[in-house]
Description:
Organism: Zhenpiania hominis
CATH topology of the largest domain: Rossmann fold
Radius of gyration: 17 Å
Family: Belongs to the aspartate/glutamate racemases family.
Oligomer: single chain
Number of strands: 7
Shape: globular
Strand order of the largest sheet: 5-4-6-7
Number of domains: 2
Protein name: Aspartate/glutamate racemase family protein
GO molecular function, one term: amino-acid racemase activity
Keywords: Isomerase
Amino acid sequence: MKDNQKVLGVIGGMGPLATQLFYKMVIEHTDAHCDQEHLNMVILNHATMPDRTKSIQSGKLEGLLNGLTEDAKTLELCGADYIAIPCNTSHVLIRQLQENTRTPVINMIEAAVRKVQRVYGKGAKVGIMATDGTIEIGLYQKECEKQGLQPRIPSPENQRKVMRVIYDGIKNGGPVNYDDFEDAERQFRDEECDCVIMACTELSCFKIQYELSDYFVDAMDELALESLRLCGKKIRRKDENDR
């Protein structure tokens, strides 16, 4: 696949629906007018990867790290210049994973929080909707504070509702109780949050499905844009202006 063009490797399958949406985002953000102007990609749909939240809560992260490392090395052999992981919770291991591979791993958490800081400025209040694992480990809270933002997380009751949307709805392929989502949204609006980061790729799917407003910043969308930028591809003018 090497033809003087950068190759993006993708560790996908966490979950599969989110991975196909990530691929779609990359395509739709690219300022391309023929096949040859699109980004070369190698996508590993590793659907049997250990559950990220369960791994965090059990303290048993070795299996997850081994799976991510094996996939990263496979992508290295395929000629990947950068690696993207469209799964927020797995970023708990991004530092260890980077130590295990020569290929740069794009940090979705940093990219999403940079977008918020750029648009809303320092001191902005930022709601975070994510899995229990992402919330408990503080991935977004720490990055928001690092970039001068004020993170807010759901109440325990609303966090359970967010998890129902993610696991019982999107991952399970079952019906979504939109009231669950609205309860969490209402909390953030009551707390006068400037925006809410959709910090789970299943919630990225939810945002598309329900055509949510830009009040909800999609972390996976920012990963797609950052991937294109690093790989030297032109981003559509409208999408570039929105960044």
